[in-house]
Amino acid sequence: MAAKETNSKMNIAIIHPDLGIGGAERLVVDAAVELASRGHKVHIFTAHHDKNRCFEETIAGIFPVTVYGSFLPRHIFYRLHALCAYLRCLFVAFCVLFLWPSFDVILADQVSVVIPILKLKRSTKVVFYCHFPDLLLAQHSTFLRRIYRKPIDYLEEITTGMADSILVNSNFTASTFANTFKHLDAKGIRPAVLYPAVNVDQFNEPTSTKPNFLSINRFERKKNIQLAISAFAMLYSPNRVLKHQAITNASLTVAGGFDKRLKENVEYLEELKDLAEKEGVSDKIKFVTSCSTDERNALLSECLCVLYTPENEHFGIVPLEAMAAYKVVIACNSGGPVESIKNGVTGFLCSPTPQEFSSAMANLINDPQEAEKMGNEARRHVVESFSTKTFGTHLNRYLIDIYRGKED
């Protein structure tokens, strides 16, 4: 069986909406790199790829990246984002359909509406990677928004079910998938879990550990970054019992993906700066927007631990990167981090309150030796369970299985 897998070289297309620098993009790039390393021909198609704001692998020549539809709007007067995303991805799908020969397998993610278009080529199998049901991420707060979202939400479930195979990023997402897409679940459609991964080789053992806390996330409100700022501010509260030197030296770096084209990114960054000012710790917090991979790795190397603040995050690649860099992670006790972090061993799973986060932070400041010990255990955990090699092996097996099904 292994020999047959080795000899099965495929022509694979990957379709992704916007090849930026978020967690979903990291997964897509890792998938392309791993599949290419196994001898497959891999080609990424996308509606946007800024060579000045992307992962280095996308411009390294490992695989080609082709852009279609970059002229189409991402929004209309800061509204109708979902509709614009659908139109952009449909444009990409039609270009792949009419301008390229058949692929053995097409891997699509985030936007399922492309699936029926891609399946018009009957010789091609389509695999859909569901990061999280989009209808749960969208707002349905007003009557007009509910009317606007109703056909989009309906299309998401119908088109997702048309994929030849469905993958999700965690058991948490798998259960959410079943509870959200009830018609698909009733039909017996069950997604397989394929955990994202991290390239552990890019992280060296840290040479020094400063009492600096690090938050890495896109500047979006759902990432709950204000929790990190409020928890950090509590370290300076008169009620917090800490060594004076630790208090005066502690700092927080808030880094992450930032796109000035996105109104929310711009507004949320200003809100966070205002919060830091209100909490009286603005002089101890540094904001870093859209740092490169090397800059991110340097920040990880120098910090004491990483604060990961989203609630019910479907998986979360940042905790893996932090643990691969020998760092403890303090995260909310919900969603994907519950599956990736060993509580009390590689990090702390806390209630999403400044009090609990701050308490865990204080413990690490007071016991840096324990932080180092946990960081070493975190590294071992990621190497064993979440390396890109492990991810690539599992993905390769899924795609070869679907390819064999096509041949049979």
From TrEMBL:
The keyword Transmembrane helix applies. Its EC number is 2.4.1.132, 2.4.1.257. Residues 21-201 form the Glycosyltransferase subfamily 4-like N-terminal domain. Pfam families: Glyco_transf_4 (PF13439), Glycos_transf_1 (PF00534). GO terms for cellular component: endomembrane system; endoplasmic reticulum membrane. Keywords: Endoplasmic reticulum, Glycosyltransferase, Membrane, Transferase, Transmembrane, Transmembrane helix. Belongs to the glycosyltransferase group 1 family. This is Alpha-1,3/1,6-mannosyltransferase ALG2.
